Amino acid sequence: MINKLLTEFFKLRHKLNQYIKKLSKTRYLHRSKTFNFLLSLTVGVLVTSIGITTDWATTKTSTLTYKTSWTNNSIDSTNLLVQNNTETSKLTYKTSWIGNTIGSGNLRVQNNIEAMYVAPDGTIYTNSHWDEAGMEAGIYKDGKVIGAIGDTHGWSRGGGKAVTVNSKYIYIAMTQGSRGKTNEDYPPEGTTWHCVRRYDLSGKPAPFPNGRGWDKSMLITSTKSEVTGLATVESELYVSDFVANRIRIYDTDRMKEVRSFTVAHPGAITIDPQKNLWIIQSKNGSNPAKILHYSQSGKQLSQQIADIVEPTAIAIDHQGKLLVAENGPRQQMLIYDIKDQPVQVGSFGSKGGIYAEVPGEVRDLKLYGLTGVGTDASGNIYINSDGFNKSGTDLRKFSPSGKLLWRSLGLIFVDNADADPKTDGVDLFTKQEHYLMDFSKPAGKQWTYKAYTLNAFKYSQDPRLHTSPDGTFVRRIQGKPFLFLTDMYSSFLQIYRFNPATDGKVAIPAGMFVGTNSADKPFLTGNWPPHQPEKGEWIWRDRNGNGKFEKNEYDTSKDYPYIGGWWVDSKGDVWKALRTEDGIRHYPLQGIDPKGNPIYSYSSMEKQTTPKIFNDLRRIEYFPETDSMYLSGFTVDHPAFGDDAGVAGSEIARFDNWSKGNRTPRWRIVIPYDTTGKREVSTAAISVAGDRVFAVTVKTAEVYVYNAKTGTQVQQLKPGPEVGSESGWIDIPYGVRAFRRSNGEYLVFVEENWKGKVIMYRLAG
What is the pTM of this model? Predict the structure, then answer.
């Protein structure tokens, strides 16, 4: 009975639609408010009646299912070529992630480990200057994060680069900035306290008499430079005061200074079995680094180690040998017998580190950017690699024989992923990492860390060492792979090529676009890159293939400086959106030079007029296969409230036959944007793939999914239980990237800066 009634209803609805279409051609319909009211009332009654009859009987909704591996939109029907509706098929999804061993919860692998201490039982205590989720200092054991050292984040607080532990307390280096609350024992304006903060072994602050700060657990050691080393001997705490060129000694219980002695540029400290100190002396100008030996009283002893390039961490192992993290080209842990004059008796890790054998390829014994070494009482070895320019945590435990026992990774910070189109999404890239995917595995287990693509020694001028890129585009141009990177402010577009024969898995600097220099300073300030033009904007191409910025490798121009966004299409053409009426720049690919670099020039650049509906263009994506252009920004109908420099705008529009001059949109979508001034709702980024358009919101990290043919919304994605149903804010203009696989499945990558990963959704096509 119900099915028959539904059939009759659909027939009636079809006839009614046909009748409405006929009436819509008459002027009378548009003028007759009475007719419109009666028509709406009739349809409403019919729909309600059928709904009441069938609701209880329809127990399931027709679904299109898709897997996700780790976000309300309205359409302005007065301006668009589509109806104001939403596709009714309900999609289901799961969530996964890449780049962090732990996908959810407060205890996950931190962004960076810049210092660590290994206790005899294998507990690892860490410290770093910054972690987005507030775990600057953590506690690890058996491959798990078992605790966080608390209250290191917010209120102008941060961590540091030293940590040590005794039988009662944890001591970490930290900083405390001013808050305008000197009555609550914060520093006065313009002053930063560089402190040692004391905690109990569970990670809770342990105050002491005359302690400073809001909870009286801080020991102020300097207002000029941070603490660079910490160690304890019996009841004494040794602190490296770098700028003062002193080692300060404090009573561990009362935290009172008892004496000090002079050491030039002291760094990390460790204590040998004779209870004497080994101290890293940091390099100073032309003076190389050394490791010096001192008694507890401050007398310099005769032993020292000078045949080392960049020592970053030291420890004493269970046999009394000195372990040194050599962060120079060797990228190894060096082992010294120190009974008499220090003699190197061994090393750990592949010589050359990550750049040994196949450069960039990740292997168990290939280290890179060492920041911590240590052993436990059983001789197990612990090493942390932090990459270069703070690439991310790679903490490993090895057996005494050198077998990898476990590894904890926290590789993502302000970054997003993109897929290699040739391998159908099996190979993913972030700004420095290469992942291999196995989509048959459970959420969070699908990715394998395959390669680290930055070579800090061979390509010391690599822009990734001097800037903070965060948006990744992977392209195949004439069959060859290229990596394009931009940043949080769309300041530049960096270009990388690959040559496995000479550089393995490393991405080689190949080119770079920057914005226009202002009248009084270069667009990129400082000593890098060398030889950059003083005026205008520039394109750099590595003409001789050595990865260095050289004087004859710049092409210059002068243009409007405020960039809305970048795009690289499938042919390799570069597009730039400027926030002006003539704000589209097209740089057609001029070929690939003999060194493998894509060629772009200002002489071939095309200026294209922004469609009139936009008054502030923010994002641009062009697809030559269909000659379709997707633009987002603020429009005449939906203008910006204030500057809102970091958002994608208020609308997305699709234009067909773009190269033929068409500037009439096929459709327009009004995307989430708050005009109340509170800016609680806004869209950070867009991405188009296949038949879908994706837009992600800033604060809620919800992905709105639209049909690319019609502009109608088809779904809204939110982080699932696999990642704790949570996400941080979207901080970057390319915070969502989408890719359609050959089987029709969509991979949707979303920046998750807060807890150091990339969220990944998988949608069936």
Answer: 0.88
